[in-house]
């Protein structure tokens, strides 16, 4: 019997084509805030970067998470999510932008037409969720349901623009002391940094 069967370890890849609401995702992972976490006048700073999440709920069985996500307030950069044990890490790299945010003349020369077709859609380009979850006695359907509840709703997708998302949604993943804009100053001068506290 494989060890994964003996110890109840399973995995799956979560793929979706709409962005996460940053505050709803943060509330799911760290038990902070609530669903209606919006304000006028732009985004607030947050406190993320190597933070332990709750051990209960549908995500309590997770032992490893690795992949990249699309936050509604980060239209330019991929955000890499890593979980080891109970500590979550979210990082963004200035070199790792969505292809949709880059001039096509700057796309990698190794990019094939087949690869582009596999990840591209007319409205949002290659922006997407692609995250691998590994857990012990993990209930995949419940994990997916919890994550799906953090995605933007149909109304948020159709009645708001990305500019609205940036101005209205509170983003707890943005480190304090920044204005929340999706540019190099937010990510740090070294190119890669935690989105939360230094």
UniProtKB/TrEMBL annotation:
Q: Name one Pfam family in it.
A: CobW_C
Under SUPFAM superfamilies, the record lists: Hypothetical protein YjiA, C-terminal domain
A molecular-function term among this protein's GO annotations: nucleotide binding
Ranges of residues in domain CobW C-terminal: 9-151
Region annotation (Disordered) ranges: 35-57, 175-198
Tell me where on the tree of life, at the top rank, the source sits.
Answer: Eukaryota
Protein name, UniProt field? Cobalamin biosynthesis CobW
Composition-biased stretches, type Acidic residues, lie in 181-198
Alphabetic keyword roster: Chaperone, Nucleotide-binding
Record InterPro entries: CobW-likC_sf (IPR036627), CobW-like_C (IPR011629), Zn_Chap_cDPG_Synth (IPR051927)
PANTHER family reported for this sequence: COBW DOMAIN-CONTAINING PROTEIN DDB_G0274527 (PTHR43603), ZINC-REGULATED GTPASE METALLOPROTEIN ACTIVATOR 1 (PTHR43603:SF1)
Species of origin reads Nannochloropsis gaditana
């Amino acid at each position: 019997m494989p060890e994964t069967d003996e110890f109840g370890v399973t995995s799956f890849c979560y793929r979706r084509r709409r962005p996460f609401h940053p505050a709803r995702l943060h509330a799911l992972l760290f038990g902070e805030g609530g669903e209606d976490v919006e304000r006028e006048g732009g985004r607030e700073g947050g406190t993320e970067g190597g933070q332990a999440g709750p051990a209960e709920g549908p995500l309590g069985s997770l032992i490893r998470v690795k992949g990249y996500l699309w936050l509604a307030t980060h239209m330019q950069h991929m955000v890499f999510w890593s979980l080891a044990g109970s500590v979550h890490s979210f990082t963004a790299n200035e070199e790792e932008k969505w292809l949709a945010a880059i001039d096509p003349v700057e796309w990698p020369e190794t990019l094939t037409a087949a690869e582009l077709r596999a990840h591209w859609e007319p409205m949002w380009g290659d922006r997407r969720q692609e995250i691998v979850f590994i857990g012990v006695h993990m209930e995949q359907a419940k994990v997916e349901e919890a994550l799906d509840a953090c995605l933007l709703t149909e109304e948020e997708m159709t009645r708001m623009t990305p500019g609205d998302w940036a101005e209205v949604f509170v983003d707890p993943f943005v480190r304090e002391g920044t204005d929340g804009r999706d540019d190099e100053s937010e990510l740090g001068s070294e190119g890669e940094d935690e989105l939360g506290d230094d």
